[in-house]
Every structure is written in structure tokens, then in C-alpha cells.
Design brief:
Layout: H1 21-24, H2 29-36, H3 42-48, E1 64-67, E2 74-80, E3 88-96, E4 102-109, H4 138-146, H5 161-174, E5 179-182, H6 187-195, E6 199-202, H7 204-213, H8 219-223, H9 239-247, E7 259-263
Parallel strand pairs: 4-5
Antiparallel strand pairs: 1-2, 2-3, 3-4, 5-7, 6-7
Length: 281
């Protein structure tokens, strides 16, 4: 049963209730795409110049790709400004969990007209898988940080998540699911999700410890010793500053295994960085 006002159970064309991505993926392509199109914010349609409710621009070029394989509990949506563009403007991956929850696996939003920062490849041009295993591109990271980007961001965004998330919540609710789960890849992701009402399945103690240790006299505060641009004094005051310092390895252990959740129509009201200064971006 849907919980949100003016929302209702999602049905297929025959009037049968749908309760999972796996169930949607059993439908024919046209019906699957009709259902998943509700996850595209109107502003994204406007930015791409999509015509009416279609996936094509005025030239008839299809700019939206939906990957929803029958038999698999996942969907991936990719939106480009041009069919041949290497830049995915909107990348979304959702999946069912074994506990009947919606997993927000990835949501990446990029401004196709913004400058690119090659933080996603190492200095040899190879994919570094979110700078894992020490394969960072420090020169590009410095450019990105100075341009006001967060770790792992290749472009400035479009400020679309604020309009996307209510669509995701309504979609999840319409399937009869009561929880959205996710794993923030960076500290700033976790803080951003707090703003949207998420709480922690795992990692709340870590987040509170990070805030405590970035206070004057704390371990992380002391390590902001100016030894490199990612560890300059003062970075503790902003989300972006802390996030780059954590990305640089300032903690004793790497950022990992933080899990969050959001109950439908429930805002957790959590804020693990209450004294932050807002950065100018």
C-alpha cells in the first residue's frame, strides 16, 4: 500500500500490481520504458531537449537508454546530450534487495557543458575505479578541488538530485516498498544524503567520530598540517574540505562500508556536521 499522498500502487497494463524491479523487467520493452520514464526529472528533459514524453530530441535522436534485463533485479538509465557523447549526463542504477528494499546503487549527474576533470583515470589514462588501490590522478584532483568539485566528480553537476529524489521516493512507494538503501562512496555523499532524510545502517559512529576529530585539538584537525594541498589548515570547516582530506587518506583507515537508509515519508533529521561552513561553488 502506498504511503505518500496522491500516490498509488504501481500496476502493469493488465492491472496487476507490481512490487519489484524484477517484476517490472518481465514486461515488454514499451511498458518497461513507460514505467521507468517516471524517474526522469522534467528539468533533465528540458536540458536534453526531449520532445514531449519521448526519449528523443527534436531531431529524432534517442538520448535515453534504459537497460532492464528480464530475469535480473536491476535497472540502469543513461542519458546523454548527444547519442555519440562520451559524457553521461544522468546515470542511475537501482536494484531490488533480498529484504524487499530499493537500493540506490548509483546516481551520477553531470553538466554536459562543464569542463571535464580526469579524476576517473590514473595518470596513465586507465580507469582508476574511484581512485581505489592508490591509483589517483593527483594533478587532475587538484584542478577539480580548486574548481569546487568533490572527490570523484568529473564535471560540475546540474543540481538535479533535489528534483530526482522525490521521484525515486514516489516510485519506491508505488511498488509497496518502505525503505531506500544506499552506500555513499565519499564523506560528502553521506552528508548530502543526510540532507534528504537518510539515517545510518552502519557508519553513524564513524561520522560522529570524524566530526569530533576535526574539531580543534582532534586527531584529524592536527593532521591538517599543510603537508600537501589536500591537508591545508581550514579544510575542516567545510564538507568539501573534509571530503578531500579523507580522500587523501587522512584517516587511519580508508573510507568504506558506510550504509544508509531512508524510510518512505520519514525524514531522519540527522546532521553529523552541525558546525559546517557552506562552501561557495
Amino acid at each position: 500500500m502506498a504511503l505518500l499522498p496522491n500516490n498509488s500502487q504501481l500496476l502493469d497494463a493488465a492491472g496487476r500490481p507490481l512490487s519489484s524491479i524484477m517484476a517490472i523487467n518481465r514486461l515488454d520493452v514499451t511498458e518497461k520504458e513507460r514505467i521507468y520514464s517516471c524517474l526522469l526529472p522534467q528539468r533533465l528533459r528540458d536540458v536534453l531537449g526531449l520532445v514531449d514524453n519521448s526519449f528523443c530530441n527534436s531531431a529524432g535522436e534517442r538520448l535515453i537508454k534504459i537497460i532492464a534485463p528480464e530475469g535480473l533485479p536491476l535497472v540502469r538509465i543513461e542519458a546523454r546530450s548527444r547519442p555519440d557523447s562520451d559524457v553521461i549526463v544522468f546515470f542511475l542504477e537501482l536494484s531490488d534487495t533480498q529484504f524487499h528494499q530499493m537500493e540506490l546503487s548509483f546516481c551520477i549527474i553531470r553538466d554536459p557543458n562543464a569542463a571535464r576533470y580526469a579524476v576517473d583515470v590514473d595518470e596513465n589514462g586507465e580507469n582508476n575505479w574511484f581512485a581505489s588501490h592508490g591509483r589517483r590522478n593527483v594533478p587532475e584532483e587538484l584542478r577539480a578541488m580548486r574548481a569546487g568539485l568533490f572527490p570523484n566528480q568529473t564535471h560540475h553537476g546540474l543540481q538535479l538530485f533535489v528534483t530526482f529524489f522525490p521521484l525515486l521516493e514516489r516510485f519506491t512507494d508505488a511498488l509497496g516498498l518502505q525503505m531506500i538503501v544506499a552506500e555513499p562512496l565519499t564523506y560528502d555523499n553521506a552528508i548530502r544524503y543526510e540532507k534528504y532524510g537518510f539515517d545510518y545502517l552502519r557508519g553513524k559512529r564513524l561520522m560522529m567520530e570524524i566530526d569530533r576529530e576535526f574539531q580543534p585539538g582532534g586527531k584529524l584537525f592536527t593532521r591538517l598540517d599543510g603537508s600537501n594541498p589536500f591537508r591545508m589548515p581550514g579544510l575542516e570547516r567545510t564538507v568539501i574540505g573534509r571530503s578531500w582530506a579523507i580522500h587523501d587518506g587522512i584517516m587511519d583507515e580508508p573510507w568504506d562500508e558506510v550504509q544508509i537508509y531512508r524510510m518512505i515519508d520519514v525524514h531522519a533529521g540527522l546532521n553529523t556536521f552541525p558546525g559546517r561552513e557552506e562552501e561557495k561553488r
